[in-house]
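Postdoc handover notes: sequence design on the structure in folder B. Input tokens:
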């Protein structure tokens, strides 16, 4: 059966969404920086990883969008994320804020609040991180989401919490990732259902999603469609990797194959496999 989401966005999805190669400025964590850069390259975007504020003014003149990721903070990175976000606000450059490990420390929560107050176009994290953002109890551990934040009741609670935030900030699209992905703007809420459990078992999948969303903002998609396209494309790459793999599929092989698919599936009608529904 055709997903209502595919139906709604069919005309857009059938254009070549990957055609333009946006230059994407990323300030992200050292753990997964290479995965994010390659995921962008594999999908016909151009990454530049740059976190020295002395060059921001020049870099901002060249880039299409900005990715800010809280994964691995330091005093310098803290400053640099704030400076970049303020510049983005001043130049109205689309920005994705990735709230990695939000429940782990007060430092992350304070920084995230400051960044969001200044500016944001897409604000994302895993389901547990987004529960923390909404002031709901969160069962995340470190940078990973917790299973009890992924039940139907918890998803409904998070959707309501994000709707409250979106009413106050109608320009922002909020995304919580997990087995089901919750997407909320001031007038639209939906749950996306693609992906496989293996995607939670190698590091950086959330960071890759953040980078990909940024690239679609840089291609001029609205925040909502950039989120739908990036999450669904990556998750369908994961589903395809499992279907292609010999069982038992080791996680290093799964990682290799999902990354291969990032470069390959865009030539195919991947979007017909989108699963999800409006809420
Ligand atoms: N159990 C699952 N089933 C299906 N898809 C999943 C599952 N877990 C994660 N995903 C998908 O994997 C991607 C990353 O989501 P996840 O919530 O794991 O991010 P994250 O915890 O921020 O990742 P990381 O911190 O490792 O960068 C999303 O596209 C999400 O839909
Ligand atoms: C493991 C880890 N620690 C901080 S960031 C990161 C990568 C997942 O975002
Ligand atoms: Mg995860």
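Designed sequence:
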């Amino acid at each position: 059966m055709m997903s209502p989401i595919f139906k709604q966005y069919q005309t857009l999805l059938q254009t070549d969404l990957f055609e333009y190669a946006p230059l994407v400025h990323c300030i992200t964590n050292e753990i997964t920086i290479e995965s994010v850069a390659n995921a962008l390259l594999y999908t016909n975007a151009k990454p530049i990883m740059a976190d020295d504020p002395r060059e921001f003014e020049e870099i901002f003149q060249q880039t299409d969008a900005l990715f800010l990721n809280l994964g691995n903070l330091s005093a310098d990175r803290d400053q640099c994320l704030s400076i970049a976000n303020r510049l983005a606000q001043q130049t109205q450059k689309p920005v994705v804020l990735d709230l990695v490990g939000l429940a782990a420390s007060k430092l992350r929560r304070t920084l995230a609040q400051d960044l969001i107050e200044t500016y944001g176009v897409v604000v994302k994290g895993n389901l547990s991180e987004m529960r923390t953002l909404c002031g709901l109890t969160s069962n995340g551990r470190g940078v990973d989401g917790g299973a009890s934040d992924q039940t139907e009741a918890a998803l409904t609670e998070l959707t309501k919490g994000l709707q409250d935030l979106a009413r106050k900030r109608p320009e922002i699209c909020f995304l919580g990732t997990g087995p089901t992905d919750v997407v909320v703007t001031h007038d639209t809420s939906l749950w996306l259902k693609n992906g496989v459990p293996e995607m939670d078992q190698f590091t950086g999948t959330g960071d890759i999603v953040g980078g990909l969303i940024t690239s679609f903002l840089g291609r001029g998609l609205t925040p909502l469609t950039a989120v739908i396209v990036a999450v669904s494309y990556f998750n369908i790459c994961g589903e395809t990797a499992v279907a292609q793999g010999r069982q038992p599929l080791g996680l290093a092989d799964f990682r290799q194959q999902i990354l291969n698919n990032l470069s390959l599936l865009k030539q195919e009608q991947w979007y017909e496999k989108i699963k999800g529904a409006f809420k």
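Context for whoever picks this up: The domain at 4-278 is CATH 3.40.1190.20 (UDP-N-acetylmuramoyl-L-alanine:D-glutamate ligase). Don't rerun without checking with the PI first.
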